[in-house]
Amino acid sequence: MYSFKNSLSFLVFKKIFIWYFFIATIFTIYEIYMQYKIVNNNIIKELNIAKNSFEKILQTSIWNLDIKKINEDIKAILNSKNIIGISIKSLDEEIISRIGVLPFEEKKYTLYLLKNKEEVIFNDSLEKFTFFIENSKKLGEKKLAVVDFYYSKDTPYEMIKENIFLIVAITFLKLFVLFLLFNYFLKKIITKPLKNLIEATRHLDGRNRVFVDTNIKNNYHTELNVLTDSFNYMSKKIYEDFESLTKLNVILKKQKKELLEAYEYKNFFLANISHELKTPLNPISLISSTMIKNKENKYDEVTIENLKIINKASAELKLLIEDILDLIKIEAGEVKANFEEVDLQVLFNILISSYKEVINEKSLELNYNVQLSNSKQIIDVRRFNQVCRNLISNAIKFTKEGSINITLKDDKNNIYFEVIDTGIGIDFKDIDKIFTTFKQLDASTTRKFNGMGVGLAISKELAKLLEGDIKVLSQKDAGSTFTFFFKKQDKSKIGIKKQEENLELCSFSLENKNQNNPCIKIKVFILNDNPLLFFKLGVALNKQTFINLEQIKSLDELGSFEDRIYLIIQAQENKKLEEIKQINKNLKIIALGNIESNLYDKLFEFPFENECLIEYIKEDYKKN
Q: How would DSSP label each residue in 398-417?
């Protein structure tokens, strides 16, 4: 909260006021001292006048020893303003006459030259003025007597008392006026503009335009004017930048949403196209393998070689499709580790033996060894093989001549699989690029060595899944060293990851169902005879972990099920639907369109929300 005591103006005023008070006090004291000195000098002048006026009269009276005349002269002198006591003594310190107020030191004089009745009061708070009465007869001693005039020490103060009061009053009046002027002008010139700046700063959030007026004449280019102008300029820029950022943020949110949708569509497309490609590949691979055997000797050698090419190409294409599917699952977080206890040395030997023929065909030297403290280890066999095969395949692919050295070893915490080749190598600046999805070092690499650049990206993610990583040491044209390492697991991990994978596939619990089943997957079929219609719906259904989605091309692919299943179709007249529904009592038909029919258990008219359809499936399955 704002307080004047804590303001800059008050601090400045306090410093100035203290110094002004100090200096004013010194000058006031000096002025009082000078007044006192002037008054004291005036008293001395007055005493000198009295001396000059009565000196000859006293001289005559003392010479004649006329005590009566002496006393009359003394009383005449005492009528002056400031003299309150007079003492006349001979040079032998014999008292001639004493009248009025005298100091106590006069008591020591006890000898009297003349008999005289004294009228004396003793007081120590006195000042003395002394002079001698001269002998005018020129006979004997030159001096006749000593005269002491006494006046009060308080006399100068009493004379300047009113002046002192007036001086002090004027000084304090000056201080008070100074305080008022300082307070007014500091508040107006400094405190108020600064307070306005502070308040404006508190409201400077970019949402509102903040402007500060100094209330100071523009022809005075003070620091506050400059500061306020700078603040107003800054406020304007912040407001403009905030407006730009707000608009940019809206655009970015829209782009993010579009990118996420594109990402989902991409995954859905890749998954679907991969499944579609795998379907014809299986019979191609199977039939070509059977024909290669040529049991009936129907084919010549050229045909057999062509069949081998077909079989090899289909196998490579199948591996590529599986890599794409794995990549989609990894990006979606659907890949989980499934640990089991195996003899790692046996697994390693099987792995190596599968590549010996290929390595021999390229005339490469193969060296391998195992350095395990214990061959029995807890690993995910499938993922271990997948990563190791990728590393070995790359070493073979990118090595024209020389050797490939493969080592399997362990330490206290990790297992290491190391592949060293004498291939083309990699520049240090390009090492990170090789782990990027669909990325090879350049287009010539893709043309020369084939591949889509997904193997190492998948391997890197799988290594992280196994609580490990892949490290690379390489030099251009000098070969590469790939080290795949992962954490050792104990027996408590066996089967746990698999159970977690199963449980995560289910996102909700269903009441009144078989409690022995830890996770229920609802079977949903889409009769995908209109890809444009079902594309977005397929993406939405694939996101639901409790739905097992399959796409069919015709109603003939739909079998009989004991559990409840759902069929999503485009609303149309189809006589075969009635036959299928009579055969499969557990079938529920969901139609999309505007054609009503008693065969449909639920009709969603266009336009409809995917979330509504998903919610219907969930709630209907719970009820039944």
A: T-SSSEEEEEEEE-SSEEEE
Q: Residue 323: which CATH number? A: 1.10.287
Torsions phi, psi for 109 (to 5 deg) = -90, 115
Query: What distance in Å separates the CA atoms of residue 209 and residue 232, rounded to the nearest whole number?
Result: 9
Give the pairing type, strands 126-134 and 414-421. Answer: unpaired
Whole-model pTM over 0.70: no
Buried b (16+ CB within 10 A) or exposed e, 236-248: eebbeeeeeeeee
Mark out the alpha helices in 191-222 (DSSP H runs).
192-202
Domain that holds residue 550: 505-623
- Residues 31, 99, single domain; the answer is yes
Write the Ramachandran bin of 479: left for phi over 0, alpha for psi from -120 to 50, otherwise beta. left
Euclidean distance between CA atoms 622 and 616, whole angstroms = 10
- Which of 25-29, 116-120, 585-589 is predicted with the least confidence, judged by mean pLDDT? 116-120
> pLDDT digits over 219-248, tens only?
556 777 788 788 788 888 888 888 888 899
Q: For residue 60, what are the contacts with CB-CB under 8 A and spacing of at least 6?
A: 69
Residue 169 within any structural domain of the chain: no
CATH number at residue 612: 3.40.50.2300
User: Which residues are 417's β-sheet partners?
Assistant: 408, 484
State the residue for tokens 């977005």: 536
- Computed over every residue of the chain, the mean pLDDT equals 80
Give every CB contact of residue 346 below 8 A, 6+ residues apart in sequence: 375
Residue 254 lies in a domain: yes
| DSSP label at residue 189 | I
Query: What is the spatial distance between Cα 351 and Cα 433, in angstroms, rounded to a whole number?
Result: 27
The SS3 call for residue 571 is coil
